[in-house]
Fold these 3 entries.
Entry 1:
Amino acid sequence: MIDLDYLAYLETILTDNRKERFLEVLENRTKHFTVAVEDVYQLHNTSAVMRSCEVFGIQELNVIEQRFGKRIDKQIAMGAQKWVDIIRHDSVSGCIHSLKEQGYQIIATTPHEQDCTLEKFDISKPAALFFGTEKEGLSEEVMQNADGFLKIPMVGFTESLNISVSAAIIIQDLTNRLRRSDLDWKLTPDEILQKRLDWARNSIRNIKGIEERYYQDKL
């Protein structure tokens, strides 16, 4: 349950411009699509994918750390970690199970399957877009559990793109199509309130001290 009084209190500390900017950004945020990266061992690629999620309005990024558990590279993420929810998984199976329970179809991005090209992808169903390692691509476990496959049309000799480039192209294309559609893709009112609270907390220095004073005053 969101403490609306606490949210109102924190927002008195923020500037009007910051509060208005939060609302503008939240109008374009979505959980209709989510992104999952599997055991990406070059840390800057995970950070760059997170930045693309933030820029194009994807609210949640799932990070599978079955083999390579690392923190986000803040310099490359450019602050995106303050605005995107990072959901960490210690196994591929756990990530897939969690996302399917939430109603997502599992979509494996790969240049080696002919199932669906980007422009023909059906955006009407909630989808978790899986991206694999730089050299090996997605694991067999993801491929076997995928509900569909997605590829970027390419006309050159090179078969694949860097994961961060692939993610940016796919996320930008699908979120643009989503915003032009009549689908119910936006965050719910409760989700927006929760993000206002989270972002306010992430924006205020010494938030722990301010939080302590707030709750002491309420006693």
Entry 2:
Amino acid sequence: MATTADFRNGLCIEFNGDLWLITEFQHVKPGKGPAFVRTKLKNIKTGKVVDNTFTAGVKVTTARVEQRPHQFIFKDDYGYNFMDMNTFEQVTLNEKLVPFADLMKEGQEVTILFHAETETPLTAELPTYVELVITYTEPGIKGDTATNASKPATVETGATISVPLFIGQDEKIKVDTRTYTYAERVK
């Protein structure tokens, strides 16, 4: 058990029968009335983010979760197969637990979140940035840059990312996995 004083970003709690990650929190002490804590909670299973307010001092049940490094091996009819980087054991996750699958290539390192008591995999997370090669994009037209113009580009995993006009085919780019946006060109 924990109280609202123990809240921190990344804390996993049991709330309304599900596991939730605290992504943001703010302690508020109004001039009149009791103190409270505003939070943004992310559902581990669905990825849905909700706002919730807890009265200060309320006890909540924490869930023990562990982050373990894995490597993506291949995809088959059962889902996505990963190998533990330490024990070399394989884990298969269905598509719902891998939200960024179209940015993942074979050999990609990911972090899988496990519920420590039941040893159940909860979700997989890519690093913040991944490097991918552009397989197809239209050539940029010179002089077409009055504003921050962009064009669609298909990367080696099949995902379509919006990139600036000066980016060409067969170039390596860095993609932000949180927002699916172009970050920079890789030399």
Entry 3:
Amino acid sequence: MTTATTHDGGSTARAVHPVSGGPIVQLPTAFGEFVAQAWTDLATGAEHLAVSSPKVPLAGKAPLVRLHSECLTGDVFGSYRCDCGEQLAYALELIREEGGTLLYLRGQEGRGIGLANKIKAYALQEAGFDTVEANEQLGLPVDARCYKAAAQILAEMGLHEIRLLSNNPDKQNRLAAAGVKVVEMVPTEVPSREENLRYLQTKKDRMDHRLTLGDTEPAGTHAAAGTFDLEQD
């Protein structure tokens, strides 16, 4: 057990989520040189990957951290139905430049409902439901993800205070509850597309994501990795 301080100055016991880390190895990528470490959630068996920049953050700055939920359709196939693959590329670019870690969380496909259910939800979206309504029609949570293992992995890596690369304030709140202090939210908004605009609008309106949706790219265009700068956030 570990302890967390309450608002009144007292402390409360907080259970440590069991995780186990493997060896640290070099990971040269299209985005630059990184080091990688696989982690196993001993409670669920899920395997996650920490991809870290060897660059040390500037003095006085907390490291950048991205909790990236696995998205096969977006990360691997470049689906335009979401912004996941482009957020992944954008986060790796920033982490390489400024120092920090991207924690790739496997088993969180479709905000935790799984790949097959995500495709079922897509079918419902094509019938007119938004992403929240589609999950509800399937009798599934709108967001079934758990960040306890992620928080413990960050703690094991010594990342107790971070700058969180995310548009989702729920991640900040849940990390704080698990003992990781988010000192800054760094937006990861990338240009929207005609194919994902309704999806992103739903996340903004119904899930409180911090999105401006000011830029929309024409259907069929694809921005290359590394072309998103801070002015676009």
